[in-house]
């Protein structure tokens, strides 16, 4: 969803920079790029490890990150959605296609990003969150789980993936 339906990557990185600044650790948005798509805990923890932050508490940091992100960057109807995302979803639904979201972030962030993107949860047939798989990108787990959804009594034989990341699976 991040980077496909909405422009949340940069705002997420800015919120993370603010989080680290509160801890007295200087980071840039570029420090987070190598961890993109690997899950929220891995993004924060990866940068903390790379910067040598001692005693980093991922759970507390994630909670504070969400506070910053939700209050400053992902307010409802803040229009972080890509202009063509809504149109693409509607066209797919009008053609009878199932439209799912597969995201490596927690449900709380998916919900916030949908609200900030002016997209309704009801537009999607199913949503896969970070807790549905073990291995984050570049492992293909998220896509395999999404392709084998049985939530709505369907398993797809054809699957089109729209992703901002380029990996060979």
From TrEMBL:
State the organism of origin: Phtheirospermum japonicum
Q: Which domain of life is it from?
A: Eukaryota
Which coenzymes or cofactors are required?
A: Mg(2+)
| PANTHER family with a match to the protein in the record | 6-PHOSPHOGLUCONATE PHOSPHATASE, HEXITOL PHOSPHATASE B
GO terms for molecular function, please?
Answer: catalytic activity; metal ion binding
InterPro entries noted in UniProt = Beta-PGM-like, HAD-like_sf, HAD_2, HAD_sf, PGP-like_dom2
Q: Per its UniProt record, what Pfam families does this chain match? A: HAD_2
Record's keyword terms, sorted: Carbohydrate metabolism, Magnesium, Metal-binding
Q: What is this protein called?
A: Protein cbby
